[in-house]
Sequence to fold (1246 residues):
Amino acid sequence: MKKSLGLWIGLLCLCCLTSSATALSAETPFTFGLLLVGPYNDRGYSQAHYDGGKYAEKMIPGVKMIYIDKVNPADRPGVTIPQLVDDMVEKGAKLVIANSDDMKDGIREAALLHPKIHFLHISGDDVLTRKAPKNLSNLFGKMEYGKMMAGFAAAMTSKTGKIGYLGPLINEETRRLSVSCYLGAKYAWETVLKRKPEDLKFQVTWIGFWFNIPGVTADPTQVVQNFFNTGHDVVVSGIDTTEAIVVARQKRQEGKEVWALPYDYIGACEGASEACLGIPYFNWGPGYVQRIKSSLAGNWKSEWIWLEPDWKNLNNPDTTTVGFQSGPALSPAAKQSLDGFIADIGSGKLNLFKGPLNYQDGATYLKSGEIATDQQIWYMKQLLEGMTGQSSTK
Amino acid sequence: MNIISLTHKRLLTAVVDWSITLICIGAFTTLILLATGAPPVSTYYHIFMGAFGSWVKFGHSVKAWIPLTLCACGLLYTFKIGLWNIGIEGQMIMGAVFATGILKWGVGSENEILFLWLSFPAGLVGGALWAVVSGFLKTKCGVNEIFAGLGLNFMAQGLILWLIFGHWKQPGIASMSGTETFPQTLWLPQAFAVNVPPTGIMLTILALCITAYILRFTRIGLNLTAIGNNATASVLFGLHPDRYMLLAMSLAGGLSGLAGCIQVVAVYHRLIPSISSGYGYLALLVVMLAGFRAGMTAIISLFFACLNVGSIQLPMVLQLDSSLSGVIQGAMVLVTLGVHAWRKRRAAS
Amino acid sequence: MAGKALHPVTCPLSPYFMRIELHDIHKYYGVSRANYGISLTIEPGTIHGILGENGAGKSTLMKIMAGIIRKSRGTILINGQPADYCSPEQAMKLGLGMLYQDPLDFPSLTVLDNFILGQTSTVRIRKQAFQCRLNRLSEQLGFSLNPDAPVKSLTIGERQQLELIRLLAIGVDVLILDEPTTGISDLQKDVLFNALKALAAEGKSVILVSHKLEDVENLCSRVTVLRHGMLSGNMTRPFSTEALLKMIFGTPPLPPLLSPIPPGYPILVMDTVSTIGGRCGLRNCSTQIREGEIVGLAGLEGSGQEQFLRLAAGMKKPTQGAIMLNGIRIDGRNHYAFKDKGVVFMPTARLEEGLIPGLSIAEHIALQNNRKGFGLQWSESLQKAEQQINWFHIKGTPNSPVETLSGGNQQRLLLSLLPETPRLLLLENPTRGLDVESTHWIWEQLQRHRLRQAGIVFSSTELDEILMIAHRILVFFDGRLTMDVDTKQTNIHELGRAIAGKH
Fold:
């Protein structure tokens, strides 16, 4: 009896092994896989990507998305990127999108293992550093503009002149974005409000990862509370999740006059609008559509793509990659100034990445009158003079 | 009563035992699935297919099986002598840290392959050292190994975070995601088609066989059992419980350190905060379910590895939370232990 | 006490006469059998004795009756009706209750709380009512229990009384007592026996398990004897001791021999040694053990003998004083050093301290012999085990786990594990719980070592045994060595006084 049972199980295994490859890959004309670092409904970074994928499904007929969320070693111990890619490829994916900086090495490894599949790594620079194989491209949006607007709105609103920036981990991207935010705030403070430069305090605190991993990262909720308890009245979030706006709302209910700007996802302010000054957000739909079409058409190249906002309409879901949605808590006057600010940047009249600017340690970043190149902005080596917080680790 | 009918009877009992256990597990997990609103049949189907659906998938299961089995192998020694080596997670982490240290040293050297091989003994030593600390606390200071182990787990976790965020950070980057990925020359070679490192499999099978042999046929095995069952009496037999506890701890630590090393050289190719993937704690369950037998340990850990790998399908295909697999795992352990206890009571009376 | 008229016991629950019939009871543990085809009848209103040597299957049979273990085969009839129960609770509902050798009570609770436990299902406990009941029952049976005393302050005998009352209050009509006279005073024994007689007169059945012939002869109206798991015979009053012994042992045992050999040089010398531990530690003990000498340690349990033996074995270290072994100072070293010099310690608690549960006889032999080398010589160990089993008459196979052996066989195994040529044997209660035959046999074996000029030190709770075996007697009282005397120069009365701390 035992023997025959074993035989049956063995047979079953064998059937599965042989049949699966053929059975699963049929039918759908084009499947793309999406690897999300956080939960697909995090009201932050990962949800923005998830919505982008849904948008692409809607816009291009016959395209189907498969996705897996919480792809990080803390949430899924033992699971690796190449393993997930293997599985998606088996399920028929022809293009795999990895949405996190954290997946850089894993996706490169997977791309080498699957030369016929196209890979799109969001936020990476493997193409620039020539580490990328031919089937791997990078895509990102010029979020520094969104961050400038966030900084601008923060400084226009702040009563104490103390702005907190809730930073994730420290790398070129995060330094770039916090610097952008600072530049926006500084412009509002010194040029628009004409207040003393030394009265603006811009504090960056890093938690160690894109979102809270209990026991591993600093707890973002506590970091934000600490900001508000030490006189900061606006917190700009640089992390994937919504702790900043949630805490701000709680503090407002306790009677404190504080605000926050979440990040990444257009809907991040829902339910906390009284504390929300605005959201710099990603709109991945258009970028995805463009890349999927290129993969479909067979003209895929290994490219490094850094998409601009649609300056004509920052909030057009069909055209812009980076958007800024001003929040209900932003005063009309400030909003007016912000609109002017946006128009000036969009028209090229104003460029905040223009010297003289010094690094935090006093070294020159941009000489007087010098305008930063894309590369200089992308590879931001330190925070700038005037910001407090770590540029690197201790 | 002749011998043949006796073995027959024993076989029959074993079959009945397992059938009852499996039926109970099936019923209980199905109930849980129904309670959480998951369709049971397709859940089982997708988990199964996720683990066995193709050679590549089976390869991933094997890749998870390797560290899990190594840890479980080590635990066989400590369970034999009656120690609860909860510190196995920390030991695995230290193995990974030591291996990473050697590999970092080897980056860019002329014979990188030498450093790759050196990382194995390094991982072994790292895990063993960490375990011996726990052993010393137990034998010399009378600290319960469970508390010592938990404390050392926290310390190891702290150390790994400190290294990743500090000393071993990627240049210009401070992230909890991990150290810089090692160049491919420092990866453990894999069999191309299924992405499984043959060296890892061979090491694991070797560890299993040696462990089974030691526990079954050598003086060490007998002495470990004797001390585990009655340490007081073992002294009268001239055995030194302290020394054997340290031996068992260092063997367990060494094997789990090796598992940590394999996580670095064959799975992640870098050091990450959760390098242990919880395999240490899982291995504790594996060994208990396997009834502390080496052969069964290999099978049960393959089962758990498959469950771990296969359950990734739940969020991908059924949009279910994959933590459900943890619930299934827990339910299985509970039911198995429950059925086992029940059978034991029946047998005793 | 015996003269005091006993009140009739009015049972709080309806009196219920129970006639128990056992038919063809079998119990197997794997291949070994503990009970084999036992049939017997217990009439209501009688005190029924169960006799047998250690390992004869008495305890197993009682545990089957009390529902603690399941029988492999056979039927139990209660008043002619088949009764199938498989837990002590179910047995108790039917009216069968067992009084264990070690009463199962909660030491930190009071007598009254223990009495109430298991009797009440309501949330609010009417302590007053229970106290009345406790007092009434205890008075009727001639017991004197203080309801407010914590149980841990009671003697074994008093705890037994409490448990007995509790069983009666629950409504037990058939009482099973397993070796109830072990560890209680003669006075308490009289009280207990009178109570049992009164209960039997009330129509309750009492089953008394004992290996003390005297107790059974005094109390029981009918006796069943078990031997090797089978029924060996029944006998009703009046009993013939001769015949009973024959049923128990097959042939009656002989008293052991004590051949006088002059003692030689001192092996172990203790000089004003003190240590802590146990009930009262050990203070300023000075004595010596010589070659070829058998020394008996007497005293109430926990008076210092335990510490003495453990100090002599190197199992613990003295807080002061010196210990010399073969003329060399050795105190402060561990047991391994003592063991190297030929000191062997055999503790009283066999499964707790001496043997290793889970390991078989052969594995114990392997443990003892395979000191060197990596691998195990299995065939050699099996062969040796077979040899020892034959030589020491151990009932078991080389592969029997030691916990399946009966107490006497465990003791034989421990004995078989002694090294060939020990220099000093330290034996803690080596014959506790053994029947006369086993005791005799064990001392015969040990004499061998004495003839080789080894020293033997043993403790025992049986003064008779000490007087019969030992050349010299050490009496301990309250942590001190109070008497060190040649056996020939003392007698049982003097020893008894010394043990009680009187001079």
The two ends of chain C are 28 Å apart (CA to CA). Chain C has a mean pLDDT of 82. Residues 20-249 of chain C form a domain with the Rossmann fold fold (CATH 3.40.50.300).
